[in-house]
Amino acid sequence: MGALITVSTVSDKFKVNGSLARRCIRHFAKSGLLVPAGDQNSKQYIFTVNAQVVAAQKAAAAAAAADKPQAQKKAPAKK
C-alpha cells in the first residue's frame, strides 16, 4: 500500500495552509490522480495515489523519450 495523503501531510510537506491543501486534494481527486482510501468522512480526507494513472503517465513519458532523437554531442574543440 502506498503512502496516505491527508490535509496535514500536504500542508506540512508543501508549507501551505489547510484550506489550500484541501482544495489541492479535491482537485487531484477529481482529475483521477488520487483515490479515496477506505470510507470517507466529511472532516478528514484520506487518499492514496492512483497507481494505474501514474503507471500510464510513466509509460507515456518513456515512449515520448524513445521517439525523441538523441542529440549528438559535439567533439571538444582542439587547441
UniProtKB/TrEMBL annotation:
<keyword id="KW-0687">Ribonucleoprotein</keyword>
<dbReference type="Pfam" id="PF03297">
    <property type="entry name" value="Ribosomal_S25"/>
</dbReference>
<dbReference type="GO" id="GO:0022627">
    <property type="term" value="C:cytosolic small ribosomal subunit"/>
</dbReference>
<comment type="similarity">
    <text>Belongs to the eukaryotic ribosomal protein eS25 family.</text>
</comment>
<dbReference type="InterPro" id="IPR004977">
    <property type="entry name" value="Ribosomal_eS25"/>
</dbReference>
<keyword id="KW-0689">Ribosomal protein</keyword>
<dbReference type="GO" id="GO:0003735">
    <property type="term" value="F:structural constituent of ribosome"/>
</dbReference>
<protein>
    <recommendedName>
        <fullName>40S ribosomal protein S25</fullName>
    </recommendedName>
</protein>
<dbReference type="InterPro" id="IPR036388">
    <property type="entry name" value="WH-like_DNA-bd_sf"/>
</dbReference>
